[in-house]
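#onboarding

Welcome to the new folks! Below is a worked example of what a typical request in this channel looks like: someone posts a single protein sequence, and someone else replies with the predicted structure as tokens. Don't worry about understanding the tokens yet, we'll cover that in week two.

Example request:
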Amino acid sequence: MLADVQFDIRDQAVVAKVTGEVDLSNASQICDAIGEATPNTALGVVLDLSPVDYLDSAGIHLIYRLRENLRARGQKLLLVIPLDSPVQDSLRLAGVTQHLAIAPSADEALADFAPARAEADAAKTPPEDSDRDTPQGEPAV
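Example response:
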């Protein structure tokens, strides 16, 4: 079975849900598709691997390559890997779980973006004008 990627934008992050098998035959295309689907305005990507049945070393390389590509754009990568996932052991043995944030669900991964989302929203809010309460013609003290 080939892999498929479904995209959804939620809370200023791209959720990329990968299904099927990720191997040398499709890993590069999956990475490119995720990069193309991620706007510069997104806070990052939640890569949902929960429905993945098989992931080889090319899939592990895809994760690291995607992380570096996003990091260069000021974005971050979070993985969704349930404890009972078939790829959990492969990623743990490869050290991926030590180097990237892992969540058991997409909702929990999206919660990790909350501080960055609040910071981005605050940057969009114009500062209050301190002279607003001062009557015209009188200098502000």
